[in-house]
Batch of 3 targets.
Target 1
Amino acid sequence: MKITRKDKSPTQVSLVISADQHDLTPIKNHVLGHFADKIKVPGFRVGTAPAALVEKQVDQRALADEFIEHALNQLYTKTVDQEKLRTASKPQVSVKKFVPFTDLEFEVEVEVIGPIKLPDYKKITLAKKSVEITASEISGVIKSLQQRMAERKEVERSAKTGDELIIDFAGKDKSGKPVAGAEGKDYPLLLGSSAFIPGFEDKLIGAKSDDKKQFTINFPDDYGVAGLRGQPVSFTVEVKKISEVIQPKVDDTFAAKAGPVKTVAELKADIKKQLKAEKQNTVDRQYENELVKKIVDKSDVDVPPGLVDEQIAQAEENEKRDLLARGETWQKHLKAEGITEDQHRRRQRPDAEFRVKASLVLSEVAEQEDVTITPEELEIRIQILKGQYQDPQMQAELDKPENQRGLAGQLMTEKTVAKLVGFASK
């Protein structure tokens, strides 16, 4: 086999692969073995006839088609191994010459992962941050518990701040079309909670049961959906019920009902412990992301465009699923954002490029540090997830090989990042 390689760019390789009869005969005999089990040759049991006799009996076009398929796969795989290529895309193959079954030449264009130059990551340091929990944070949780455990007493009077209203509401834009996400049925709204956009709750102060209110509010300039920023939305609201919210007194009886404690002091200590664990987890994730970014920024990596395109496509599919779950279509979402599909993809590219680069850098670190995942580690993670998700369909998903490969990759990333954290925090 002869290989002519041309590096068209750091991430694009062209290969011309030529094979002669010496290379092709074993492939031909292998393919004939497939036909031997289907063709009856006089004087021989099915599957026992010599290859030369089988060849005379088979359809020559069918034989050539299957032979080329096998030859391309085997010779390409051998070439990848021989050239030590780390492919990043499906190969584009074109057959240049084929003389059955003695001469085959084909050209392959494929994206590859080029050399990755890492910094001296063992010397990159980053100070860890400790977390503190304030008294106001603890008070905030207690207030939330009071609200959750409060008694709701229906009243026949005008609504005031602190009351809970059960409402139906719907919002329409200036053209009269419904605004996605701006509608609800039997929604419990606590007046004064600032749960809705500024101004909405104020319009319901003084309302009574069975009142229907209509009003227009401009969405904030920093609203999450770009297409609605600063835009007027007309709301129709029906007040179905008004309840006075009677919050319990914060005492030992309240504490015993709120959690596995006996006193207010124990409740506050338990809240502080949980808040600290949650806050520390958030800080740790931020630390890891900052450390990985620091290493990635100092690494020299040529990112294959095909891998970036795959990342963008995957992120787009996830976004579409989330929108569908909220009852919003992809086209409506793009319109609300005021962008085209192409603009949306271009906007995603920088983040996608970084994710691909980070993945390649972490893979290189894992290889240099000999990070591995044992079957036992993977099985433990699968069983933990099965314990969290009791749904039979989700359990079946966890048994699929492709999802287990994904979990193994996630474990590999976690172990690699943990090793980098160990270096950085010494």
Note: The longest strand covers residues 232-246.
Target 2
Amino acid sequence: MKFRAYIDGAARGNPGPAGAGVFVESERDRPALEFYEPLGATTNNVAEYRALLLALERAEEAGADDVDIRSDSRLLVEQLRGNFKIRAEHLKPLLAEAVLRAKRFRKFAISHIPRENNTRADRLANLGADASEKSRRF
């Protein structure tokens, strides 16, 4: 089963209230799906990785074997492809987990897209950041 997801992470401040968003295109009998996750206070790069991990988790739950991820984070895409070195120690475990999860699928691809082509995932990531912000007030 094909699983094409658009992912985004958002952080207000760096670090600040953050969220992860995933928009999954409809496929045959499956409607389009939307997921978001509040992340508390973290950085934008962590939020991008958490969005990727959320998408991979949902793909696995759906029984997907062909996963295609689209992200507007060139850093994330190139780090996952092994083209950019990962220097931030706190991102290394997230990258390692993403690589392990991606290997579970028969086919996995990740590509960089322009920000303007990622508005649905961006909206979802901001919903997650909103939820993080609201939970901080109490």
Note: The first helix runs from residue 44 to 62.
Target 3
Amino acid sequence: MIVKSQRRKNTNVNINITNRDGSCHSIEQKDHIKYLETMIDSSLTWKCHISYVCAKFSRNTGVISKLRHYLPLKHLTQIN
């Protein structure tokens, strides 16, 4: 991932690696990566991470709301 400023967002950078045997490989450019459960995007904003956390939270909330019909409330709120 190449980190860019928000003003220069549209600049393209091509990185090629040449092996000893002469073959050339280009590296795929990513917009965001996941590192230690944190989503980091190329302009170092939090938009990608916030949407990732919201989706994860929404999914877990849905599971808990479905389980409330089958388990007593004290089991759902108990912290181990």
Note: Residues 3 and 42 are 5 Å apart (CA to CA).
